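Subject: two folds for Thursday's group meeting

Dear M.,

Sorry for the delay on this. The cluster queue was jammed most of the week, so I only got both jobs back this morning. I'm pasting them in the order they finished. Each block is the input sequence followed by the predicted structure tokens. Could you check whether the formatting survives your parser before we put anything on slides? The first protein is the one we discussed after the seminar.
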Amino acid sequence: MIKQSKVTMKNLADELEISVSVVSRILSGKGAAYRISEETQKRVQETAAKRGFTVNQLARGLRLQRTHTIGLLMPDISNSIFSMIARSAEKAFRRNGYSTILCDTANDGEVEKQALGLLHDRSVDGILMAPVGGESQYIKAIFNHGFPIVLVDRFLDDLKIPYVTSNNYQGAYDGVLHLIDHGHRHIGFLQGIPDSKPSSERLRGYRQALQDHQIPFDARMVQGGKFEDHDGYISAQILLNYAERPTALFSCSSVAALGAMKACMEMNLRVPEDVSLIGFDEYPYASLLATPLTTIAQQTGALGEGASQMLLDWLDSGNPPESASVVLDTELHVRASVARVSNSEK
């Protein structure tokens, strides 16, 4: 009995009259990323299957010291912005031949620390994460050893880690300006996690908009500490029970804005007739609510795609990206949740 020789990528390349690199890219799942035609991809895959050729990913990973897995850490996957970021990032990684391990850190620093350790121990090739905020020494310890980490949506001032984020300052400024242009001067602010970059930047935009229009800043008008609906509900109740009730609320999160809407309903206050409301982030059903919600929309797909590409480029080249930060514009989506107030209501 004649022993059949092992089929190699070079055998396939010679048979198909294409380069070995093209065969390698297609069989490693990177054909689309390198813009190889679907016809060529199909020919290579069919010929490989016919010849009984399989790519031994384990052996390949050991040879290249790669596992072709990426760790993806999101602070709250139930929040639509993070689920959309995760989805676009995972698609980009899969398109380039990487599997993804997704961890939900529940906006908890201790959970985040444990997840980072787990992913590092599992020898993932890199990590894409939206950090909880606050304590960051455990992230710094991994990053400073040359481990590829890219941040998305949130970033940390004290670390030189590459990131892709939104212009949270300008987005909040534009939203508060929209309220001011409609006559509002008593504007409550529902903040997110205070030491997270998005929340602090949105607060800065809120304060600057007030200052630019000679409206005094009142610290009592800032309430909340999370991006969640229950936090928005409680914070709105506090603000709307003031003797001098705010005529408008700006929420750092559209999820928290839904909680504020619930508080208004229970207090028999109408949106926008009694209280105007804006939420940061484009909630998927914002336009379908009984009172469609005015929002500050982020480019969630571009956030996930941009951050994942930054990490992929790092892994391909072996060097951190030259452009260490990308800031994307936001857009004000005007709907029915903001009303104009008269001088007597200001």
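Second protein, same layout:
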Amino acid sequence: MKFTKLTSATLLGVSVLSAFIVPGTSFAATQEHNADANGGIELPQHDTTTAGISFGDNNPSGNTGYLRLQMVPHVLDFGNHEQFFAQYPMFTADGKNYGKNDNNRHPNYKNGDTNETAILNTQDEKLADVAGKAWATVVDKQVTRDATKFAAPNTSVSGTWTLSVKPDGPLQAKNDQGNVINGEDINDATLSFKDTAYGRTLDIYTLTSEDQDKDFANRDKTKDDNKDLDASAITSDFSLPLTSGGKYQLVATAADTQGEGADVFGWNKDDIQLTMPTTSVVKNAVYESNLTWELATGIA
């Protein structure tokens, strides 16, 4: 009974509303593609929205060329810690104090919650051994060089290059503004890389996403699987004393005809280690040192 009365009332409401709709009544309207009618700007009009997300380190070196140093680890992040213990002087690039977990405050050395040692994200099976590691990449496209257009000794053959790295100085203390605190350097710390992994792929563009690699032609697909063409003399373990006047340490060499494509060298975060002198006296400060990577051929 109540339901019937409610239905009647609803129908009445619709009838009353319909009584106010008069045929021929004008509604708001602006004609499309008539700029004058819209005050000088025609309709339809458009604007855009960007939705963005990124993963890992996607900032290549910016280098170009048939042979180039495409990527190096931009940050090695050894974390933020309560204090320095002489009996636990080693720190790893995943932001941890080796053997002293209760001394770890933040995985980021600038007090953030995210460790900034980036790792390689790739689905390329040829790079399976370096996926998930901090990495450096050499791109060798020398086979695309037209040697007839360049004077000797330039050729269109891959290889004949070395990748090296050196320290630029000691660990320097810096304040909140990033200014060096004079007289507070930590000398004789050592940065170590262990168990260097390696992978090589001819699918350069998929790895780098750089337009300059789009036109690289894989002339012989068997070259990816030919281990004789991989870079040689890869240094498994090496150390860099963080002092002034540091020397280059060899990371890898590609002999003549080797290394065509993208050569990737990688390290697990916990295999990149910073060992400080047991006599270190630290302040409440950020300590930084820089490394310089070099790709060279030695050909004059």
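Two things I noticed about the second structure. Confidence is low (pLDDT under 50) at residues 1-21. The two ends are 103 Å apart (CA to CA).

Cheers,
T.
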